[in-house]
Fold:
Amino acid sequence: MNSEKAPTRAVQHRCAWCSDDPIYQRYHDAEWGVPEYDAQRLFEKLLLDGFQAGLSWITVLKKRDRYRQVYQGFDPQFMAQQSEDDLLELLEDPGIIRNRLKVRGARQNAQAWLRLAEQTDPGEWLWAFVGGAPRINAFANISEVPVTTDQAQAMSKALKRAGFTFVGPTICYAFMQATGMVMDHTRDCFRYCELAGA
Structure:
């Protein structure tokens, strides 16, 4: 009888905020902290982070596909032209977060995005708050990760001046983390070395 033990698989350590939910793990492993430069994707992520206000991210993540359907891929032109009846219909949709302020705010943000796009490239404008390149942090654990920074506060103020809503400093920092403007995978996470280039 062969007494050799079968090789054990190495456990991949993830950031402490990531639960064992497969949806969450896929998001953590493939998306979170990866630099995103596409303006359309940045618009989507900015709105999704705004929808998170007062809720857990996993709640929004599980509704993301439905949001993509009702907002036609987060098309700002489509969203900006939604009528009051359209908004009332959205408030009846159980597949999204049925919060009146957030539904109305999404239309407002689409309108603000289009105005911004008339003046500049929104993607470049957003990335300018971190100097145009990812800021690589090296936090040992989740307790060291801030909830906001000076750059996030500056982004929040600028977005509010541009007519956006649900863009407080904490939301803006979460957006920066999600889009890789800042890389906040902690050093004990397997994604840290992959994204930090270590």
